[in-house]
Amino acid sequence: MKTLRLVTIFVLGAGLPLGAYWSLGNGHWLAHAEMGPAASSANRTPLYYRDPSGAPLWSAGPMKDDRGRDYLPVYDDGRPTSEPAKPQPQANSSRRILYYRNPMGLPDTSPVPKKDPMGMNYIPVYEGDEADDGTVKLSPGKIQRTGVKSVPVERRPIQVAIKAPGTIQLDERRVSVIVMRAESFVQKVADVTTGTRVKAGQPLMEIYSSAIASAAAEYLATITSKTVGGVEIYGRGSRQRLVNLDVPDGVIAEMEKTHVAPVTVRWSAPRDGIVLERNAIEGMRANPGDVLFRIADTSLVWALVDVAERDLGNIAVGQRVAVRARSFPGRTFTGTIAIVYPQVNRDTRTVRVRIELANPDAVLLPDMYVDADIDTADAAPVLAVPDSSVLDTGARQAVLVDKGEGRFEPREVKLGRRGGGYVEIRDGLREGEAVVTSANFLIDAESNLKAALKGFAEAAPQANGNAAGEQK
Prior knowledge:
Residues 301-376 form the CusB-like beta-barrel domain. One of its GO terms (cellular component) is membrane. InterPro entries: Beta-barrel_RND_2, BSH_CusB, CzcB_C, MFP_Cation_Efflux, RND_pump_MFP. Belongs to the membrane fusion protein (MFP) (TC 8.A.1) family. The protein is α+β, with helices and mostly antiparallel strands. It has 4 domains: 5-74, no CATH class; 137-158 and 381-447, Beta Barrel (conserved putative lor/sdh protein from methanococcus maripaludis s2 fold); 161-171 and 298-375, Beta Barrel (Elongation Factor Tu (Ef-tu), domain 3); 181-282, no CATH class. The chain has 6 helices and 33 strands. The strands form 9 sheets. It has a 6-stranded antiparallel barrel with strand order 13-22-25-24-23-26. It has a 4-stranded antiparallel sheet with strand order 10-30-29-28, with helices on one face. Strands 12-27-32-31 form a 4-stranded antiparallel sheet, with no helix packed on it. Helix 3 (210-224) packs antiparallel against helix 4 (231-244). The longest helix is centred in the last third of the chain and has 32 residues, at 440-471. The chain is elongated, with a radius of gyration of 48 Å.
């Protein structure tokens, strides 16, 4: 006689009975009853079938994996039949649902629950989530995920860094030339060439001039004459004639001391500097107006830089400037702005600025390229916020004020100077208020999205009412 045995098979992982079977005693089993989720979903049509091992593999119809296991059906509740049903979160009964919005952020709302084409549930929007005071409210989780950071508005000096290229030029006031005022002949030239550094009073050349010799003899005659009456006045006139011929003072003093008129006159360097030009040649004839030497003092030079027109309001005479020569990386020369030229270059839209620089070791040479950093820092602190906190659309500038408890208020502001990573706030904020410096563009996008959704939600009832009126 065959023994019938009832065996109940459990799924160890879930603890749920799959079904009861009768044993016929000959190795055959007879299914008696079906239980569990498979029986409860027998009358539903699966959306698709997924891999039983959890791999990202799906199928539109029933199939088996490479191990012979059946794919698990997935129904419209989003759970496969072999997984236990998870409790759905209960709706907040204390607040009224205004509408349901698209889970992907699209401007699509629904007055009743629905799913999008991907099977995702629309998100309910409760009464109170939409603030009427112009603020944006975010949940603590969203604030943490987006990395929202806020800093207080403080007063600080704004450092506007102005960079300008330029070149080194000689100080016009420190250039001397040696020019003959009468016809002369160069008798001898010292060992001085172009580029030689000379000292004031150092001999440069000896010249002979008949005009200078005649004036010297006349002056000696007046100062040695013993005649009475008008000698002093006549002597002063003779000396002035030598001065007008540009005879060096040392030569005139030597004549007054020795009472001897020199045949040739020694010409000396009028200042310390570098010989920029030497045109004197032994034996040459020099006509009036010929430049024989040009000497420049390079202990103080100019840096002529071109400042952009937009930065003109931030510079002033007397500001300190750090100049860096491209020939000497790592070295900084300090100077001050001496003059801002009153003309704008119509082609480059720049303004020429003169900076006076000390050049004691004469390493800065004329026409050398330099880069200037103009320090425009104002000692008076102003209300300022970080650059990253400003949302600039070109026609409108705004910041997000952190009101606390996840509320953020968009506020339009008027900006001033920028520099050092900060921007001056001239209107729109008060000291101590907190502004968002990180992820503010996400909050702004959330604000625009909520405003659009609210507009759709308000327009939907009106559209439904108009449709009903047309049907009547």
